[in-house]
């Protein structure tokens, strides 16, 4: 079985943060906040090439964030479905789900988040991605279904807060308490937890709202949308406990826990893909 390795912060970044923190905690926190907004870009693996080549590519300008995003569409006459990938991913990372949904007659859209794939910018944050989801909903939607992986799940759920409506939704390997994401990041880059509040203040000043306002659980409490929640018990990026807690707050939620698929391979597992498509269709 393949190892379910988590994304690791390069050692040189950890050392640079510690160096800055030695002289000034405030400076180290500001640098950490900048790092938090920069995803790691990975080469598109061969398994995603078929989806990349067969889909219709279109760049769409999102005025709310002042950035261009690359969209991928598989045309069909059926229900519209939006797929939103996670941090340091790509729109084509959702290829297995995209192809199966299209095979069932759905009109499939995915996109590269800002600062990801072929979209513009080198930085982004969750509030920006939410604005992209909402803008796409208005420009090429409305969407019947939405599927989000990791922070993509947070973002589709947050679009509900602003009035977007879906017939069904799916979250895969998604966190819920965003403060915990910042805690984990602080730990990974070598800062102590006492720097957390300062990092949260930087976030608030930048986006104009608290981290907690984007909590998936808050969105779940106001949602009447049937939602499928999937998570792997071996996920080393986002603990399965997140989804075990989230499911308690959905009025119409269903939780499926799997094993041995980690944080990303779950996206292309045949059984998981079939479960998602079956949920959407029935």
Describe the model.
- With 282 residues, the chain is of the alpha/beta class.
- It has 2 domains: 1-36 and 179-214, no CATH class; 47-177 and 222-281, 3-Layer(aba) Sandwich (Rossmann fold).
- Helices cover 39% and strands 17% of the residues.
- Strands 1-2-4-3-5-6-7-8 form an 8-stranded mixed sheet, sandwiched between helices.
- A hairpin with a 4-residue loop joins strand 1 and strand 2 (67-74).
- Helix 1 (11-23) packs antiparallel against helix 2 and helix 4 (95-103) packs across helix 11.
- The longest helix is centred in the middle third of the chain and has 14 residues, at 126-139.
- It starts with 10 loop residues before the first helix and ends with a helix.
- Mean pLDDT is 92; it is low at 1-5.
Question: Care to give the gist of this entry?
Answer:
With 282 residues, the chain is an alpha/beta fold. It has helices at residues 11-23, 25-36, 49-54, 95-103, 126-139, 151-159, 178-188, 196-207, 216-222, 241-246, 270-281, and strands at 56-62, 67-74, 80-84, 107-111, 145-149, 168-172, 227-232, 253-258. The chain folds into 2 domains: 1-36 and 179-214, no CATH class; 47-177 and 222-281, Alpha/Beta hydrolase fold, catalytic domain (Rossmann fold), CATH 3.40.50.
